[in-house]
Design a protein that fits this description.
alpha+beta; six-stranded antiparallel β-barrel; single chain; disordered C terminus; elongated; nine-stranded mixed beta sheet; 14 helices; 2 domains
Length: 605
């Protein structure tokens, strides 16, 4: 492995000059493309109260909702469903949990309209990192005419209202929705915008819906010209059925000229109540390619430029509490900051190559010159203090200020903000110097974290996804407007994103390592250090490897900085993970949380 890495470094050095001329990584301001920024497209509902939703849906209300769903079913032009009726639909044989692997992943979606009327739709479980996501139609969670979210939305997988006992009616439990996510420009009947992704609450015992149904459907995105020879539509059509039974219909799905939706009218005309049901394509892993839109036989196609951004955004995990900044500042006395150092006693991992910096120690690091506030890279880097929620212990990671519209963001590692649970009393201190006293120790103030964002629950366990963005409270000043961290430190690192294999001839790793130097013992002081190394990535390894810098505890979350051109702001390309592979800033993970942290909206229009 070591020899392999050295060969890649040497080969990469030969193309370093080409990289300096034409880098192949995407900056934040280059990610908009044709689809616009994510936060300009996606909007989320307020969180529901799980207990209130469960209390609302009595057996009587569920029966009333089923009896109200749907309209008269139209006649199919050609029925291709085995044993299908005149509309093309056939009943799923109960019990659904035993007889049909697609039916167990599909369920009924109950809701209350703004006027108090009860309603039903269909929905299905989709594969996700957090195992809590369902897919449905936007009009099943949002009332366009009333410009408001539906209330008391509840998902019941494999629901069968006609079963004789409760165990078969509700075999897999009730799942209140937590939040719903739709496209900001959604309007009924518009092409491919009538789609929603929603997160459900876990069960009280911690079970997640994807595990309970045996895995979700794999979303398959397609663009306007792709047809599907056979899709299987599952859901709960109302019409004259009104029995709360799950049905399926087979159809040829094709794109009409001038319309990117999937057309299935000839075989499966849509019926009220079936809205939001999945369009499934058979395969080793069953895929969902669209959802029932509710207009004739038109299905919302899952497009990367529309559904894709909603799907990724829905998986974001956010720290649940916006802590009082005054309480955070009061908590972090000098004594507690000292106690947070060192919190790591594991040896650093050995180098895979010789140190590049003159005077570097055996881990490849040199101590940054003080005072840090006088140096551009040092003042944009800092220490992230935290308290553990489970035992009250204090610790630290590293972090860095990044450029943003809010001018209030820092980047770090996901495991620095959420380990066994969300960490508490998080506070960022730029240019922190634990060897100094007085103002030189905290030269650029203390900045409590308002809220932290990670790509999904458990992201800290994967090197390539171990990234977090935290939004800081502004600093209130006696005279004039509030000051942001980016304003005070004089800028931030410009996030530079990439998904593919890359070679960077030299990155600077900045942070506050506290683990042992092999053979020398631990670092004694909380001071800022730097290590330089090429950054490389192997095929099949989406993270970045810096072979000339030993991974050190306490340095997690520190930026990998590409500072190749003095005429532009230094750029951060990744953050330190706790293994030899570091987290790359990917558009599909970092890009989503970066925008979510920078700005949020609560109205689709």
């Amino acid at each position: 492995m070591v020899n392999h890495l050295f060969l890649r470094v040497m080969a990469g050095a030969l193309i370093a000059a080409a990289w300096m001329v034409a880098p192949a990584m995407a900056r934040c301001d280059e990610l908009d493309g044709n689809s616009g920024r994510i936060m300009e497209q996606v909007v989320q509902s307020p969180a529901q109260d799980a207990e209130a939703v469960l209390d609302f849906w009595t057996d009587a209300r569920m029966r009333e909702a089923v009896a109200d769903s749907g309209s008269l079913p139209p006649i199919a032009q050609k029925v291709i469903t085995p044993d299908g009726d005149a509309s093309g639909y056939a009943q799923v044989e109960p019990p659904y949990t035993i007889n049909d692997p697609y039916a167990v992943k599909t369920g009924m979606l109950f809701s209350e309209l703004p006027d108090g009327q009860l309603s039903t739709c269909s929905a299905s479980v989709v594969i996700s990192r957090n195992k809590l996501l369902i897919l449905t139609a936007a009009h099943c969670v949002y009332n366009y005419s009333g410009q408001s979210w539906l209330r008391n939305v509840l998902f019941i997988p494999a629901y069968n209202a006609s079963a004789e006992n409760i165990a078969e009616q509700i075999p897999l439990g009730k799942w209140p929705l937590n939040q719903s996510f739709i496209l900001k420009g959604y309007a009924p009947h518009t092409t491919d915008t009538d789609v929603a992704v929603a997160s459900v609450f876990p069960q009280p015992n911690g079970e997640r819906v994807e595990d309970v149904v045996g895995g979700g459907f794999l979303p398959k995105v397609s663009e306007e010209n792709e047809d599907f020879h056979l899709v299987k539509i599952y859901g709960y059509p109302g019409g004259s059925y009104l029995d709360g039974k799950q049905r399926f219909c087979w159809a040829h799905a094709w794109a009409m000229q001038g319309d990117t939706s999937l057309n299935t009218f000839a075989n499966c005309p849509n019926i009220g109540g079936n809205s939001g049901g999945p369009n499934i394509v058979d395969g080793r892993q069953p895929e969902v390619v669209g959802v029932v839109k509710g207009v004739f036989g038109s299905q919302t196609r899952l497009r990367e430029s529309l559904f894709g951004v909603v799907y990724r955004f829905a998986q974001i995990a956010k720290s649940p509490i916006e802590e009082n900044p005054d309480e955070v500042l009061a908590f972090w006395t000098d004594e507690r900051m000292d106690a947070a150092w060192p919190s790591h006693n594991m040896p650093g991992r050995p180098l895979l190559g010789p140190p590049l910096l003159e005077g570097a120690d055996q881990s490849g690091y040199v101590r940054m010159p003080a005072p840090y506030a006088e140096h551009r890279l040092s003042r944009m880097s800092g220490i992230l203090f935290y308290r553990e929620a489970n035992n009250g212990g204090v610790g630290h990671c590293s972090a860095a200020v990044i450029t943003s519209g809010s001018k209030s963001l820092v980047v770090s590692a996901a495991h620095c903000v959420k380990n066994f649970g969300w960490r508490e009393m998080m506070m960022f201190v730029p240019a922190y110097d634990g060897a100094a006293t007085g103002k030189q120790r905290v030269p650029l103030l203390k900045w409590p974290v308002r809220q932290a964002f990670i790509p999904y629950e458990g992201a800290g366990g994967r090197a390539d996804d171990d990234v977090a963005v935290a939004r800081l409270y502004p600093e209130n000043v006696p005279i004039g407007p509030s000051v942001t961290v980016e304003q005070l430190v004089g800028g931030g690192f410009d996030p530079r994103m990439s998904e593919d294999e890359t070679f960077l001839p030299s990155v600077k790793i900045l942070g506050y390592p506290s683990a042992w130097i092999p053979g020398d013992g631990p670092y004694a002081l909380a001071v800022q250090r730097r290590c330089d190394s090429p950054a490389i990535s192997d095929v099949g390894n989406p993270g970045l490897v810096a072979p000339y810098c030993a991974t050190q505890g306490g340095n997690s979350g520190g930026p990998l900085v590409w500072d190749h051109d003095s005429t532009v702001e230094p750029q951060v390309v990744g953050v330190v993970h706790n293994t030899s592979t570091h987290a790359r800033l990917k558009p599909s993970t970092f890009g989503v949380i970066y925008e979510a942290a920078d700005a949020e909206s609560d109205s689709p229009h």
